[in-house]
Amino acid sequence: MDKLFVPRELIAEILAHCKECYPYEACGILAGQFGVSKKIYKIKNIEKSSVSYMMEPGEQFTVMKEMREQGLEMTAIYHSHPVSSAYPSPKDVSLAFYQDSVYVIVSLVNDEPLIKAFEIKDDIIKEIEIIYS
Amino acid sequence: MAVKVRIPTPLQKLTDGKDEVEGEPGTIISLINFLNSKYPGMGERITEGGKVRKFVNIYINDEDIRFLKNEETEVKDGDEVSIVPAIAGG
Asked: For chain B, which ranges sit under pLDDT 70?
């Protein structure tokens, strides 16, 4: 995948979720079909930390089950970086198990949030263009 | 009737792209050993030293095995086992 298609409303929802969770990291899933995101699932970060996240396992499981039942794929996994740049941290890289998904990172370091998307495969990070639809 | 095992996308390379495979009844650990014999490499992706890895969650039907008997949880014919790598980072 070299582009991530996301409707503007979903981008707005991601940014609102990230700001709401500040100073902690927010996390969630974008679901869609054929590489186009259609739905957002905001998921609880059980780490309650500014430098770490882990999706609440039960919620993650329920969301993935619902996506399967609705024929949706996980187009992206998003999380925020309240105190660092919009780039995967070493921990993001080492725990990037879902290589077919795109990792979206929102940095809240500056007044204006910065949102970027990456493919993380076998420890190699590649930036993906976000197309606002 | 066998045990239905749901394979997450990160492990489907080991099952030739199949998202669902069949397993044998027993315990979670015996099921993982069975899967490893059929799909070499599966065991080390799920467990470490006989224990399920920290960043892997396993469910029997809708129950997290950590709230049951972990690796010793019994798996019966007709059960659906889901292997779900955690989504985490920093």
From this structure: none
Q: Rounded distance, CA A64 to CA A132, Å?
A: 24
Q: Do B89 and A88 touch (CB under 8 A)?
A: yes
State residue A1's pLDDT score: 72
Interface test mutation site (partner B, options A97, A100, A120, max chain B beta carbons within 10 A): A97
Amino acid type, A99 = Q
Decide: A102 and A119 in contact? Cβ < 8 Å. yes
Q: Is A104 exposed, middle or buried (0-12, 13-18, 19+ CB in 10 A)?
A: buried
Domain spanning A3-132, CATH architecture: 3-Layer(aba) Sandwich (3.40)
Cross-chain residue pair B87–A27, CB shorter than 8 Å: yes
- Which residue ranges make up each domain of chain A? 3-132
Residue length of chain B: 90
Which chain A residues touch B if contact means CB-CB below 8 Å? 27, 29, 43, 47, 51-55, 57-58, 60-61, 64-65, 74, 77, 79, 88-92, 95-101, 103
ipTM of the predicted structure?
Answer: 0.96
Tell me which residues of chain A have a pLDDT lower than 70: none
Instruction: Return the CATH architecture of domain B3-85.
Output: Roll (3.10)
Average pLDDT along chain B: 97
pLDDT in tens, A21-46: 999 999 999 999 988 999 999 999 99
Tell me the pLDDT tens digit for each residue of B9-20.
999 999 999 999
d(CA B69, CA A114): 44
